[in-house]
Prior knowledge:
three-stranded parallel beta sheet; 54% helix
Amino acid sequence: HLLVEAIRQLPDLDAQVALVGPDWYELEYTAKLKDMIGDDERIKLVGTAGDELLGQLYSGCAVFVLPSDVEGMSLSMLDALAYGNAIVTSSIPPNRNLVGDAAVVFEAGDVDALRDALEEVFTQPGRMCELRKLAVERSKDYDWDGISAQWADVYDRLVD
């Protein structure tokens, strides 16, 4: 809802917004989102997306936005890093820890700060390119083969 509010405050923003995630268990919230979106044709509720559609969305994404107030280590944001998406995310510790300096971070829950962050990324093409490069570099910190090897090493030392 915070992203919808921020986008609605940017009527001249020429962007399509895909809200992705399961909506079947939060019918009331989904109805609220639909009401907020109204007739704004830029914003689409995608709902649950399979791997193929997710790959298409990440590949065609200009900016990945995660405005959550509560989150663990977000696998969707990890995917966005690996796809080289420019990222805008809230300031909660798990998000900050995951992205490091590879994102524009706004104060969680602050719709005006989110709006300003979106304006920054969309109106400065150089900034978007910089964020894309930083995302790819940051994603290299999360190489699952390397992480698995590190865990195996820890277990081996504990057994010894």
